[in-house]
Design brief:
Pfam families: RRM_1. One of its GO terms (molecular function) is mRNA binding. This is BN860_16336g1_1. The chain has 576 residues and is α+β, with helices and mostly antiparallel strands. Among the domains are: 86 residues, RRM (RNA recognition motif) domain (Alpha-Beta Plaits), CATH 3.30.70.330; 85 residues, RRM (RNA recognition motif) domain (Alpha-Beta Plaits, 2-Layer Sandwich), CATH 3.30.70.330. It is 27% helix and 20% strand. It is built from 15 helices and 25 strands. The strands form 7 sheets. A 6-stranded mixed β-sheet has the order 3-2-11-6-8-7, covered by helices on one side. α2 packs antiparallel against α9, α4 runs parallel beside α9 and α8 crosses α9. It is flat, with a radius of gyration of 26 Å.
């Protein structure tokens, strides 16, 4: 079995890329392009017959005052001509979705080219995209370069085509890039503005929303830039001196019977409820969400604005006697929480091996942000160079020319670099479609498989892009952030006692029969020495359903049930 090289896309950034074919045996140096707040997406050099794109609405700078002002930043875009070769030959192709750019000559762009990983053009596109991606991505300061990635044109991101019933909570459920200063929703104009404390957080959200095709309540959301405005001096002072955020922490609350005994709370007070908190706090401004931690006697109230949170912290105890003796301060903004997925992606990009994250400051949001920004830009370059602008954010990679008797397990053994949402094998057509959770992981896998090849049963597979699956559902994204995967872990199994029985229960055939009622099972692994086993599904949704249902099975009620690690998310193997 052949394995492909690199622990991250970033490995290719420090040197020129050389092509193995004699006709392409020249290096491609990154083009130096000016950075104007968003990647110029200048993918390939002129010798690859690139064509200009004319921006449509480009990056509008909008203000959310009474008179909406619109300005446009003119940045010519460039994609490679005739680079649709990565798509499939047998009826499967990337689906179109809204993009802020229109091709001047769409027919020329979509001219046919040889297909499959053997194509010189496919190899050129993948390698050149990775190389050129570095041209507009300043290096991470912690990695030895003094440049910083803070050139966003504004700290406010504009969202258009929003649902008229959109709430602050629904909007901010999609934001995981940094501390939010303020949120404005204009239902009559079907748009919204999210302002961040730092421009780098705005840039990360902006690029992430474009790459992952932000989708809310059945709508494709248009992404742009709001009008640049300075941060309020009151907010800037509170952030610098007190660590102010939108989140107000309230301690020493009587939260009811689940309260831990050691909590120093006056139990004679009325039990706090979400309704009371909302009623007491809404006079300071619009509320995003409220969370009460009953066993600790604390609550967190997220406002739509930091300024409203500052008012609450400074005056709540004075104007409301109920909170006179309560601890009141700032909590962490839920939009700035570094998820497990973000840590995993940053580690992959930086080439950090599993278990070695402690050597890097993975609690440093700036490090994570910079790594994710560079990773997103590289993924966008790879996807659009191989499949055109409509392929941006695609998470599905096509593998063809598979062995006739190939098993799903064999395919998963060679797929590395990202968690999988689903893997679908069409046995009669000898092809399969691998859908990743994250488009950056899909782009990395596509690029490395195209450059170095991917082999199953000594057979070279074709690599291309499958049909665009659209953006990942937010509920599934949140589940993944909390540790969900295709892999179900079952622990605390007494294999010795089970084997002594007349008919052992924990066998592969028996477990497969039980767990397959919730979906196709790819593989079952046993670790008797650790008293556990792992059931791998082909679809992450089936694994989530199985964990929910299996807890009601009498044979599993005393066992430990959780998500295991998806082996496809491991760092790619090194070429020997």
């Amino acid at each position: 079995m052949h394995s492909y090289n690199t622990s991250s896309m970033n490995q290719l950034f420090n040197s020129d890329v050389h092509f193995p074919n004699t006709n392409l045996s020249r290096s491609v140096s990154p083009e130096q392009s000016a950075y104007g707040g968003a990647p110029t997406n200048q993918l390939l050099q002129s010798r690859y017959n690139s064509v200009e794109l004319q921006p449509q609405n480009e990056y509008p700078l909008l203000s959310y005052d009474n008179k909406t002002q619109i300005q446009f930043q003119r940045r010519p875009q460039r994609v490679s001509q005739g680079m649709n070769f990565g798509n499939l030959q047998d009826g499967e192709s990337a689906s179109a979705f809204s993009t802020p750019y229109l091709l001047q000559n769409n027919q020329r762009l979509m001219q046919s080219q040889p297909q499959g990983p053997q194509s010189e053009y496919a190899l050129a596109a993948a390698a050149a995209a990775v190389a050129n991606a570095n041209a507009f991505m300043p290096s991470i300061p912690q990695l030895g370069n003094s440049r910083n990635f803070n050139n966003a044109p504004s700290k406010t991101v504009y969202l258009g085509n929003t649902p008229p019933t959109l709430t602050v909570k629904e909007l901010l459920d999609h934001v995981r890039s940094g501390v939010v200063e303020d949120v404005k929703i204009l239902p009559d104009k079907m748009c919204a503005f999210v302002s961040f404390v730092d421009e780098s957080a705005a840039l990360l959200f902006h690029s992430d929303a474009i790459l992952k095709r932000l989708h809310i309540d059945g709508r494709d959301i248009k992404i742009g830039w709001g009008k640049p405005t300075p941060i309020d001096p009151v907010i800037a002072t509170a952030v610098a001196n007190d660590g102010a955020t939108r989140n107000v922490y309230i301690g020493q609350l009587n939260t009811g019977p689940n309260l831990a005994a050691q909590a120093s709370v006056d139990l004679s007070e009325p039990v706090i409820t979400e309704e009371k908190l909302r009623l007491d706090m809404q006079e300071f401004g619009e509320i995003d969400c409220i969370k009460i931690v009953e066993d600790r006697g604390i609550a967190f109230v997220h406002f739509a604005s930091i300024l409203n949170a500052i008012k609450a912290v400074t005056s709540l105890a004075t104007i409301n006697p109920y909170y006179k003796n309560k601890k009141i301060f700032y909590g962490k903004d839920r939009c700035a929480f570094i998820t497990k997925t973000q840590q995993h992606n940053a580690a992959q990009f930086l080439g950090v091996q599993p278990g070695m994250e402690g050597l890097v400051q993975f609690s440093d949001s700036e490090l994570i942000s910079n790594a994710l920004l560079q990773q997103s830009a590289a993924a966008a370059a790879i996807a659009t160079s191989a499949g055109g602008p409509n392929n941006l954010g695609n998470r599905t990679v096509y593998l063809g020319n598979l062995p006739k008797d190939v098993k799903v397990e064999e395919i998963c053994n060679v797929v590395r670099g990202g968690l999988l949402q689903n893997i679908k094998v069409l046995v009669d057509r000898h092809v399969c479609f691998v859908t990743f959770i994250d488009p950056t992981a899909a782009a990395q896998f596509y690029a490395m498989s195209s450059l170095h090849g991917i082999t199953i049963q000594k057979r070279r597979c074709r690599v291309g892009w499958g049909k665009h699956p659209g953006s990942l559902e937010n509920a599934l994204a949140l589940a993944v952030s909390n540790g969900a995967s295709r892999n179900v872990y079952v622990g605390n199994i007494n294999f010795t006692l089970d084997n002594e029985g007349e008919k052992p229960f924990f066998t592969e055939s028996n477990l497969r029969a039980i767990f397959q009622q919730w979906g196709e099972v790819e593989q079952i692994n046993f670790l008797p020495e650790r008293n556990c086993c792992f059931i791998n599904y082909t679809n992450i949704s089936n694994a989530i359903l199985a964990i929910d249902k299996i807890k009601g099975h009498p044979a599993f009620k005393d066992l430990k049930i959780n998500f295991g690690k998806d082996r496809c998310g491991n760092v790619p193997h090194q070429v020997r």
